[in-house]
Write a structure and sequence with these properties.
- The complex is a heterodimer of chains A (224) and B (159).
- Chain A is mostly beta strands.
- Chain A contains 1 helix and 16 strands.
- In chain A, strands 2, 6, 8, 12, 13 and 15 form a 6-stranded antiparallel sheet that branches. A 3-stranded antiparallel sheet of chain A has the order 14-9-16, with no helix packed on it.
- In chain A, strand 10 and strand 11 form a beta hairpin.
- The radius of gyration of chain A is 35 Å and the shape is elongated.
- The N terminus of chain A is likely disordered.
- The longest helix of chain B is centred in the N-terminal third of the chain and has 23 residues.
- In chain B, strands 2, 3, 4, 6, 7 and 9 form a 6-stranded antiparallel sheet that branches.
- Chain B has a single domain, classed as Immunoglobulin-like.
- With 159 residues, chain B is mainly beta.
- The chains are: A mainly beta (224), B mainly beta (159).
- Strand 1 of chain A pairs parallel with strand 3 of chain B, so a sheet runs across the interface.
Chain lengths: 224, 159
């Protein structure tokens, strides 16, 4: 019969203990995790805001608390009354607006002067690298009409573009209405504020029948 | 003991100390097991910091908030002292800001990706340390075309 000396038993037990400890360590390691991953996703990141004439903001956006854009369904007018003596004399007739919008909602700076200027401005928000600009389109009727059915071509109305203290090009430049159809009146690069003040005038080169001529232009902003 | 064996013993002792001492001067950093942590929201919705664009770089920042029940396993450092850091490695999609508010077990703080910030320093008296952290991530909207995973971890510097 072989009997192991006491020293060998001690070595054997230590060896078993080490293996048991290794097993425990491996078991513990199997459930461990190091680091946490959060998934960030863009949530409702796209916003468009277009203001032609009066608009609504809860506050200006450089204010504290910062402003939020709101809806405003007001349709503003641009009008001119041409005296009988001046009709058709070729002298452009400045138009005026009933819009009261003078301040930029960016910083409440008085950017436009009423009633001679109509405010147009806005922005579009989108994520990702720089994308194509948003386009502002005017949908223009063929003509202005009076109750008798007489017509004035919309191309008899044009506008210039500026702004108090402004420098550089205008995002909504000067132009002349088309006689029916859609025309681009400006664009906005993503994540930038854009604004101009328009001064409308009637060309006054024809002698139409006396009357009140009206037409509605719809401005639409489309973001890519 | 002869003079030569004393000299050999002294050399051996000096050699051993020269190995031990440098590692004793530098803190050893080890990632901490945080498998017990739990997010209250599965994903972090990012919204514009400001509703409208601004003329400053801050105008394009997006922010998102999430709450994590943090539970880190500090059993390996039990009854010792250490410093726990929250680390946010540099990663895609680019620079990421992270700020957090705690319930008091850890320190509140903020950091930019590529850095770490101390959240605890002192004795480790229990096998697990727990706190509820409200995280706020900040990323430039130009980098956020789609969902992105952001990884952070806790690590221990032993005293």
């Amino acid at each position: 019969m072989h009997t192991a000396p006491p020293g060998d038993w001690v070595r054997l037990e230590r060896h078993r203990l080490r293996r048991a400890l290794c097993g425990a360590a491996l078991f513990a390691a199997a459930g461990a995790a190091y680091g946490y991953t959060a998934t960030l996703y863009p949530q409702s990141p796209q916003t468009v805001y277009l203001q032609v004439g009066v608009g609504n903001f809860t506050n200006c956006y450089t204010c504290n608390p910062q402003g939020q854009p709101e809806n405003n369904t007001t349709v503003n007018n641009e009008t001119v009354s041409v005296t009988g003596a001046a009709v058709g004399n070729g002298a452009p007739q400045a138009m005026t607006t009933n819009s009261t919008a003078t301040q930029s909602f960016w910083d409440y700076y008085v950017y436009c002067s009423v009633p001679g200027q109509l405010y147009i401005g806005g922005f579009y928000r989108t994520t990702g690298a720089t994308t194509a600009a948003a386009q502002v389109i005017a949908t223009v009727p063929t003509a202005l009409t009076d109750p008798a059915g007489d017509k004035l071509p919309f191309s008899s109305i044009k506008w210039t573009s500026s702004g108090n203290g402004d420098t550089g090009g205008e995002p909504f430049p000067a132009g002349t209405f088309v006689n029916g159809g859609q025309q681009s009146v400006g664009s906005m690069a993503s994540n930038t504020w854009n604004e101009s003040c328009w001064s409308f005038s009637y060309s006054n080169t024809t002698v139409p029948p006396a009357g009140t001529y009206t037409g509605v232009v719809l401005y639409t902003m489309s973001a890519p | 003991m002869s003079a030569s064996s004393r000299a050999a013993s002294a050399f051996f002792l000096a050699w051993v100390l020269s190995i031990i001492w440098p590692s004793g001067l530098q803190a050893r950093t080890t990632a901490i097991d945080d498998s017990g942590s739990q997010a209250l929201e599965p994903a972090v919705g990012m919204r514009w910091k400001s509703a409208s664009p601004t003329r400053s770089p801050d105008g394009n920042l997006m922010v998102g908030t999430t709450t994590i029940r943090v539970r880190v396993n500090v059993m390996p450092w039990l009854r010792r002292s250490g410093r726990i850091y929250l680390a946010l490695p540099a990663q895609q999609p680019g620079p990421i800001g992270l700020s957090w508010v705690t319930q008091g077990r850890f320190l509140s703080g903020k950091l930019q990706s590529g850095n770490r910030v101390l959240v605890y320093s002192g004795p480790i008296t229990s096998a697990f340390m727990e706190d509820t952290l409200t995280f706020q991530f900040t990323v430039n909207g130009a980098l956020m075309r789609r969902s992105v995973p952001v990884t952070y971890h806790f690590e221990m510097d032993e005293d």
